[in-house]
Design a protein that fits this description.
Layout (H helix, E strand, L loop, with lengths): L2 H32 L1 E6 L5 H19 L2 E6 L3 H9 L5 E3 L2 H10 L2 E9 L5 E2 L1 E6 L7 H6 L5 E4 L5 H12 L6 H4 L2 E4 L2 H9 L5 E5 H10 L1 H4 L2 E6 L3 E2 L2 E5 L4 H13 L5 H11 L1 E6 L6 H16 L6 H17 L2
Parallel strand pairs: 1-2, 1-3, 7-8, 7-9
Antiparallel strand pairs: 3-12, 4-12, 4-13, 5-11, 6-9, 6-10
Length: about 325
């Protein structure tokens, strides 16, 4: 073998070694990346309040799964949905309406559902006012709407927006923004504080936030009057991206489904979030009642829309009815 051939042979070996080295580094980087999970929390309250509630749970998750858990608190629900869409968040706690959006837009699926400390899997939307207000019934609200400053939830909130919009307004062919003096969107915590401070006259909320206040500041709950309570809403889901590493999914699911089954400290951590008591396995099927509710809301609005022609209305209603039939 001459010197030139020997040189080419050495270069070939060196190139192969470099290629293998680069591949190994890339593989290890991918492995490291897969072990880092960004967990999104919707803005039912301020980021500081949510951080205080959820960080002990995330610390336990990191310790028991070996994963690096990074929390993500957005100022609104859409922030978490969009972050999951672009894979900046891989796992999230959503309400059902927000979970529905994530499933449809963010390559996501439901894998678990929270259980309350009493063993139930549901909660209710509420309509609240201050005890000093003159409004004692729903009829009082409707009859005096033009004098009322109204607080409603994030547009992607189930109990703060979708449920009250359907039951309180859509069924009566009403639009909140057309009947009240003012309407402001805010999270549950902010709407609760606004009612207590008399910054709004009436606001949508839910039993999770109400009962949390009842446990922590019972003297403030005495300042609230419940004007309306909705039918039962399925409790909140945990959602992950479909393309998350199966081995990582298994670690997370095992941790979540076994959490707080017997450990008093774990039970205390969940109790401080929203009086949660554990989790059960779930799927996208839990979102079906919410999808139906959204479609019924749209159907009611279209049916009462005097600006649409008969043909337009018939076509739009037929499309919604087909979607409803597909969910049965």
């Amino acid at each position: 073998m001459n010197s030139t051939q020997h040189l080419f042979k050495q270069l070939k070996r060196f190139g192969l070694a470099m290629a293998l080295g680069v591949a190994a580094v890339a593989n290890n980087a991918g492995l490291a990346l897969a072990q880092e999970i960004n967990f999104g929390i919707i803005a039912t309250d301020s980021a500081n309040v949510q951080r205080e509630r959820w960080e002990p749970f995330f610390a336990d998750m990191a310790k028991k799964t070996g994963l690096t858990i990074k929390s993500f608190y957005a100022p609104d629900y859409a922030g978490v949905i969009e972050a999951m869409r672009f894979n900046k968040v891989q796992v999230a706690w959503y309400g059902n309406k927000a979970a529905m959006e994530a499933v449809d837009r963010s390559n996501a699926e439901v894998f678990a559902q929270v259980m309350f400390a009493d063993g139930s899997f549901g909660y209710h939307a509420l309509l609240l006012t201050h005890v000093d207000s003159p409004y004692k019934t729903l009829d009082d609200v409707y009859n005096n709407a033009k004098q009322i400053n109204f607080g409603i939830g994030d547009p992607n909130s189930t109990s703060g927006f979708l449920v009250p919009t359907y039951y309180l307004f859509a069924q009566r062919n009403l639009e909140a923004r057309n009947i009240f003096k003012t309407v402001r969107n805010a999270n549950h915590g902010a709407n609760m504080q606004a009612v207590l401070a008399k910054q709004v006259d009436v606001a949508a909320n839910n039993t999770e936030t109400y009962e949390q206040l009842e446990r922590t500041k019972p003297e403030l709950v005495k300042q609230l009057r419940i004007l309306w309570k909705s039918p039962l809403i399925p409790s909140d889901p945990f959602v992950w991206r479909k393309d998350l590493d199966p081995a990582v999914k298994e670690k997370i699911k095992k941790f979540v489904l076994n959490y707080a089954k017997s450990d008093p400290q774990e039970k205390a951590i969940l109790g401080k979030i929203y009086n949660y008591g554990g989790f059960r396995e779930s799927s996208n099927a839990q979102l079906i009642p919410i999808r139906q509710l959204e479609l019924f809301k749209d159907r009611t609005k279209i049916a009462g829309d005097a600006s649409m022609s008969a043909d337009q209305k018939s076509k739009a209603l037929a499309e919604i009815d087909a979607k409803l039939a597909a969910l049965k």
